[in-house]
What does this fold into?
Amino acid sequence: MIGLGQSQPNVFADPGNTQAVIFEAPSRLAKYQATEIWIGAAGSSEDWGSCNVFVSSDGVTYKQIGTIEKQARLGTLASSFASGSDPDSTDSLVVNLVENSGPLESGTTQDADQNNLLCYVDGELVSYSACASTGQDQYTMNGYIRRGVLGSAIGAHAAGSSFLFLDDAVIQFDYDSSWSGQTVYFKFQSVNSFGNAAQSLSAVTAIPFVIPGQGTNFSPAQTTDIVNPDFEISSDLPPYGWMRPLLPGGTPSMAYDSSTPYAGVRSFVSSVISGAGSTVIPLFSAQKYVVTPGDTYKLSAAMKMTGGGSGSSVGVKFAFVDANGASVSGGASDINVSQTSGSWAVASASGVVPAGAVAAYLSLFIKPNGTLTTGEWDSVQLKRMPNLGSEVTGTLPIASVGSRSGSVSFVIDGGGAVVSTGVKGSVSIPANATITGWVITADQVGSAVVDVLRSTYSGYPTTSSIAGTDKPTLSSAQKNQDSALSGWGNTALSLGDILQFNVNSCTTCTRLNITLTLSIAG
It folds into this structure.
């Protein structure tokens, strides 16, 4: 019963539009599932309750892939976030969350180290510690920020770049690997908080997204993921993802070096004294690698040996075994890297999987040669290059990998009104790339011209147009695209460049989506 002065809620209230951040998860974030897209969404209205997520490979036929029922904490950078070291105690990450996002919590350095406060920032994954509210819907993170988390690239990020806090509000979509490098289209159908008034799918603006395919087999060289390759996940011993074997010939000690690590906050340390010439394995990777004869692997690691006499060494081994678990060819084909210097250095070696091998094991080793020998390890990497014929050899450089596809997307929202003219924001370019085309869509039929301007990071905020006479344009249409770019003055982009989007004119449209397709250097 409704009493005097009370009003009945509108169970059919308009839910408003949905705002979303979309990105392809790096393999380690996706727990080694190679084809995952992560999506966070939030409503633009207080009456928003959820959204149905649809995807299309052609922009015509859509299939529902899930429902987002929880507001994600997303927004944009309020100011630029410079490229920094890991951990970063110098730079501040300042974000403006969308109006209906929840607050960001503060944490500790341990939370940052253990990725408890993980965020997506314009292509880079970061994990922060301290966080404070510094304005309406604005938060500043500083003091101790882990950069380039889970193998993502550390980069410079311009004001206006996308931000998404990664928690259970974010959904994962496992896409068809054949879509790698292609443009797909997402629609977010808003539903109000009473489960009513779902938007008409035909009226929802499609958001184009070019799938980079960074986790799929798009090039000869592939990173073979190692759990905890840099010993950063925790301070437990043995390290997470590694195990201590029960082998004769010496009992290695285990510790961490937090004062002089090669990278990050710690490196792994082990010491042993044993009989002359013997080799001791302080750690095995907990993973077993299935291998194919003829494939080439490249192994590398940062190492140093502190203590030890003549003939002593420390290293990493990738050892091949047959179906019975026995060493193949007596270990002659195993891939080894070693170090005898007391200073940090990266050693690498390549090798071909021998006939008869079905699996391989990765291990750290110490050859003490009768004296107390201490080794340190960090940044262990393993890359596989499938058998492509005679062109693949043990010295095939990783740099020979070809280009891949990517995209830069920018949304201009008029907040329900026709989009006004002027500069609307900017994005940072995370890699050397070439612009290969553009796509522009709108919420309705209309006309618009959007200029694209470029600057180097050091030269920002001074920018100059690169779109020339071929700017992303709508002429009494809802979508348009171009892959010729005949009127563009320059399509080459460098790591750290900043692109700015300026609306020269707009009629009727209240929301514009601009996507620049890229060819990214390998």
In short: The chain has three domains: 74-165, 223-399, 402-522. The helical segments are 109-113. The two ends are 66 Å apart (CA to CA).
